[in-house]
Amino acid sequence: MSVSLLLAVGVLFAAGTVLLLERTLTRVLLGVMLLGNGANLLVLAAARPGAPPIVGAADPAEMTDPLPQAMILTAIVITLGMTAFLLALAYRSWLLTGHDEVQDDAEDRRVRELADRDEGSDAEALEAAR
């Protein structure tokens, strides 16, 4: 495995993670795609290179294992399905709200307000009871 390949995997994972943490669905979609491509590249880089796995074309000990390529093809199909689903979500959000930004949940806002006021924690009450 070469250093440049590992560097490319690291960049794809880092950029994908940053984009996945955004509120806009299109950026989340790009993050999922970058993470998927990074994972595929990592699996491909971890595979042992060798001759094509065609019976009679090479010595079986020199053939490459076809399992990583099969796993990558499966991951590509799964990523395509997730991409289509996220595109449908972004399009639906665009139709309903005029943007594709994910809003805060009302319960999340309430929990954050309680945490800011320090009323949601029972730690002080438990300490006082001791």
Outline of the structure:
The chain has helices spanning 3-20, 25-46, 67-97, 106-117, 123-129.
Top keywords for this entry?
130 residues; mainly alpha; Helix Hairpins
Helix/sheet category:
mainly alpha
CATH class placement? Mainly Alpha
CATH topology: Helix Hairpins
- Main sheet characteristics: none
Q: pLDDT under 50 segments (min length 5)?
A: none
User: Helicity range of the residues?
Assistant: 55-70%
| Gross morphology | elongated
Count of domains: 1
Count up the helices.
Answer: 5
Family: Belongs to the CPA3 antiporters (TC 2.A.63) subunit C family.
Pfam family, one: Oxidored_q2
Membrane topology: Multi-pass membrane protein
Protein name: Multicomponent Na+:H+ antiporter subunit C
Textual characterization of the structure:
By secondary structure, the protein is mainly α. It is 69% helix and 0% strand. The longest helix has 31 residues, at 67-97. The model has no long low-confidence stretch (mean pLDDT 87).
Could you give the topology of this structure?
Layout: H1 3-20, H2 25-46, H3 67-97, H4 106-117, H5 123-129
